[in-house]
Specification:
The protein is α/β, with parallel strands linked by helices. The protein has nine helices and seven strands, in the order H-E-H-E-H-H-E-E-H-E-H-H-H-H-E-E. It folds into two domains: 165 residues, 3-Layer(aba) Sandwich (Rossmann fold); 50 residues, no CATH class. Strands 3-2-1-4-5-7-6 form a seven-stranded mixed β-sheet, with helices on both faces. The chain is globular and about 50 Å long.
């Protein structure tokens, strides 16, 4: 995601970048390093994620730390603040509500001539099957099933993530995608909000438990 953003964000200008669903800030820090003039804002609904991101921020060089802001907030209830680059990786499919309303809000947060870079699951047989599985898991959720998912998570990702991070992600295994990046999303809904698709990128899957994603880049008219 960092590399894709860098194809569209000028490195020598004081651009504003917003990372929607920033988690613990990994992409925010990468972008702040690569864009030395940029102000980078990371927002997330998770208090634990923002607290961890803030702990990392205060350890940075004061100049760099001053260019980074983290906010714990529900995106749809946040005041609109148009930026040059809005990036969101693996989050938009989880936000409930009408897709047209969400995309209109995204468009409102991108300046004219700016870009929206999003990683989203696309419409394919694997994702439809995985969505059905999540709906079934949601119906039979129990402490035992949570423990089983945690155990599988330890096996797959224990080397790079602690139990706190794994437990934070267990609820996502029960949430089916609210939307997929299909043809209607790309060719009807986004253009209707003033967003023109300029590029699509494959996104390698990092886990069998993850929906298959792609990266879409839109430009604001």
């Amino acid at each position: 995601m960092r590399d894709v953003v860098l194809e569209y964000a000028p490195r020598d200008k004081a651009v504003a970048v917003l990372d929607l669903g920033c988690g613990t800030g990994s992409l925010v820090f990468l972008l702040a390093d690569a864009l030395p003039e940029a102000r980078v804002i990371g927002i997330d609904v998770s208090a634990a994620n923002i607290a961890e991101a803030e702990r990392s921020r205060v350890l940075l060089d004061p100049v760099k730390a001053g260019r980074i802001v983290f906010e714990r907030v529900d995106y749809l209830h946040r005041a609109a603040t148009p930026v040059d680059v809005l990036v969101s990786d693996g989050v938009l499919h989880l936000i409930p509500g009408d897709t047209r309303v969400l995309v209109a809000r995204l468009a409102a947060d991108v300046k004219a001539g700016g870009v929206l870079v999003i990683g989203m699951p696309y419409d394919c047989a694997y994702n439809y099957a995985f969505a059905m599985l999540r709906r079934v898991l949601r119906l039979v959720r129990s402490r035992a099933l949570d423990a089983l998912i945690l155990g599988i998570g330890r096996l797959l990702h224990g080397s790079e993530m602690g139990d706190e991070g794994l437990r934070e992600r267990i609820p996502y295994m029960y949430i089916p995608p609210q939307r997929l990046a299909g043809r209607s999303f790309r060719e009807v809904i986004a253009p209707g909000a003033g967003l023109r698709l300029v590029q699509r990128y494959d996104m390698p899957s990092v886990s069998l438990s993850q929906l298959k994603h792609e990266v879409l880049v839109f430009k604001k008219a």
